[in-house]
């Protein structure tokens, strides 16, 4: 079931969301000082492309630098990427088939807003 949902996700929303994260990552790499944001952006692009079967957990070793970085991320890219997830989630929820995909899009909003200090892991590893 996860594979089927991931395939439908890629076709309807995942490809475009991954492109958005990749473009943000490229921009962050060009600016050099924001390379850690670029790394986070590419990590989330991978997750946005194939989200089912994976989950986000808080990294316990993340400290003050992650919190400061999250504030900067929110201002530079987080708000816009989160709005993309909200809009795609609303459009996906307009059909019965799209409801689980819309819910997945809404679950990505907190990660889009504050990605530093979080890790993407297999859903089986959390259980």
What does this structure look like?
By secondary structure, the chain is mainly α. The protein has one domain (2-126). The chain contains six helices and two strands; from the N terminus they run ααβαααβα. The chain has helices at 2-30, 35-49, 64-92, 99-107, 109-113, 123-126; strands at 54-58, 118-122. Strands 1-2 form a two-stranded antiparallel ribbon. Helix 3 packs antiparallel against helix 4 (99-107). It is globular, with a radius of gyration of 14 Å. 29% of the residues are buried.
Protein topology:
Layout: H1 2-30, H2 35-49, E1 54-58, H3 64-92, H4 99-107, H5 109-113, E2 118-122, H6 123-126
Antiparallel strand pairs: 1-2
Helix pairs in contact: 1-2, 1-3, 3-4
Give a quick summary of the entry.
72% of the residues lie in helices and 8% in strands.
List keywords for this structure.
127 residues; mainly alpha; 6 helices
Radius of gyration, whole Å: 14 Å
Biggest beta-sheet profile: 2 strands, antiparallel
- Taken from the alpha-carbon principal axes, the silhouette is globular
The number of domains is: 1
The helical percent reads over 70%
* Structural class determined from secondary elements: mainly alpha
Number of strands: 2
Q: Give, in order, the helices and strands.
A: HHEHHHEH
